[in-house]
Amino acid sequence: MPTVHDFTGVPAVVDLACMRDATKKLGGDINKINPLVPVELVIDHSVTVDVARSKNALQANMEFELERNRERFAFLKWGANAFHNMLVVPPGFGIVHQQGRVVFNTDGILYPDTVVGTDSHTTMINGLGVTGWGVGGIEAEAAMLGEPMIMVLPGVIRFKLSGKSREGATATDLVLTVTQMLRKHGAVGKFIEFYGTMELQKKKKKKKKILLKWATIANMSPDYGATMGFFPVDHVTLEYLKLTGRSEETVIRFVLHFMNHLKLGKEIEKKGTNFITQPQRERVFWSYLELDLADVEPCVSSPKTPHDRVPLKDMKRDWHLCLNNKVGLKVSNFYQGYGVPNKAQDKVVKFSFNGQPADLKHGSVVIVAITSFTNTSNPSVMIGAGLMVKKACELGLEVKPWIITSLGPGSEMVSKYLIKSTLISKVSMLLVMAAQHALETQGIWMNMIVAAVLSGNQNFEGRIHPLTRANYLASPPLVVAYALAGTVDIDFDNEPLGRGKDGKNLAQSTVLPDMFKSAYESITKGNSTWNQLSVPPSTLYAWDPNSTYINKPPFFEDLKIDPPGPHGVKDAYCLVSFGDSISTDHISPAGSIHKDSPAGRYLLQHCIKPIDFNSYGGRRGNYEVMVRGTFTNIRIVNKLLNGEVGPKTLHIPTGEKLPIFDAAMVGTTLSSLFEAFKLLLATKRYLCLVEVHGCWGGHYCFGRGRIWKCEDAESLGLTGCERFTIQLPENINEIRPGQDIIVTTDIRKSFTCTARFDTEVELAYFDHGGILQYVFESFSNRPSFLNIPSWR
Question: Roughly how many angstroms between the first and final C-alpha of the chain, as a whole number?
Answer without folding.
Answer: 17
